[in-house]
UniProtKB/TrEMBL annotation:
The keyword Oxidoreductase applies. Coiled coil: none annotated. It comes from the Bacteria. It holds the Pfam family Pyr_redox_3. The lineage of its organism: Bacteria, Bacillati, Actinomycetota, Actinomycetes, Micrococcales. One of its GO terms (molecular function) is flavin adenine dinucleotide binding. The keyword Oxidoreductase applies. This is Putative flavoprotein involved in K+ transport. Keywords: Oxidoreductase. InterPro entries: Auxin_biosynth/cation_transpt, FAD/NAD-bd_sf.
Amino acid sequence: MGAGQAGLATAAALIARGMEPQRDFVVIDRSPRAQRAWSERWPSMRLLSNAEHSSFPRRPLEGDPYRHPTPGDIENYLHRFEAELGIDPVWGVRAVAVTRYGTGPTLCLKTTIGEVQTRNIVCATGAAARPRFPEWAADVEVEGVQMHTNAYRTREQIPHGRVLIVGGGNAGVEVAFDLANSHDVTLAVRSGGTEVQARRFPTHPRFSPWRRRNVAQEPPYDALRNRGVRIRDATTGAQGTEFTFSDGSRQTYQSVVFATGYVAGDEWLPTLPQLQRRIPTVTALPGLFVAGIPTHSHAKANTLPGVWTDATRIARFIHARP
């Protein structure tokens, strides 16, 4: 389930094990035809990692390996990879639930168009399937617009006036930079805007992974302050147009952008006790696996290089199942 990077990586790993798409397995996705999550990101967004570290192993992105790709670059990359694999995904079908069929090894996948019986199911619906909002978001009633960063495309969407961006992570910082020249912007962050962390990657794949260099600083609050963006404490609540912050202060804003992250697309998985000795990608239901979601695997499972590890492991398990 899922035709994004996790689903395509798993398909590639199954093909490498001798399985044929559309005969031995099928890829299903809830989105309208060929509209992956990358198409929902704003065009000016740039990945933190450069192109060299933003692709599947041995399948590099085209162009300058040191550039920072856009969502469009990744979307096109996945379309090409899908064609290369010969995958014909079934679009517009959402998974609802999965249960064991009887007492045997067969699983029953319930979808929006009916039930499917199969021996193996891979949840590849992504770590960023749906926008996450704070509980108090329902109390917001601003004069301008309120939106999540997944709906943000250009600064023209935001009317002039004071804009509050809730969330000081990478998405919030990028939108703040985009709006800084045209709007009165405030960025609300949990850290107080004092911590700057460095992201590090190997200098070359043939070098030891311990030889690393800084390629990006996050988040660059000082640079935002120089652009006129106000950095203030975390937002804790709202009532209409008035927002409350963790330092006890209040302020009204005309528009608000929630840069509060996403939730994984694993809501359709059964709630089962975890295995005593937890194995990444493996669930307590035999034949049910999860790819590309860090909480079910490892910290970098939601990246293109990281999900390849998940996919390879899952294909090995499926191939070895009796």
